[in-house]
Amino acid sequence: MSEYGSFAQVCIPKFHGDYDHWSLVMENLLRSKEYWDVVREGFREPAPIEELSPADAKRLEGLKLKDLKSKYYLFSSIDRTILKTITNKKTTKELWDAMKLKFQGSARVQKA
Predict the structure, then answer these.
(1) Residue 77 is part of which domain span?
(2) CA-CA distance, 102 to 98, in Å (whole number)?
(3) Phi-psi region of 42 (alpha: psi -120 to 50; beta: other; left: phi over 0)
(4) What domain of life is recorded for the organism (predicted)?
(5) How confident is the model at residue 8 (pLDDT cuts 50, 70, 90)?
């Protein structure tokens, strides 16, 4: 199997306006990939990176990679027109929170 074999086989759920359903499925996907912690907690880069211990620097690089991979999944699942309104978010957590703020409960509001 190629290096990208398992990555390419993932079926990424598309957002079609039902935030509650989409977030449930996306959370499950991100948990299965062990990326949910960067969505839930986020991460901050410490000011002087040069002063980090080698272990802390490695941990930070791991968090950055998780954030990039989880952002890829979110970018792939969100329609371009919606994505354009929230691409200024730097982290996956900020992106997730922006989607939540914008769309959570929108399906219930439309039904009422």
Answers:
(1) 18-44+51-111
(2) 6
(3) left
(4) Eukaryota
(5) low
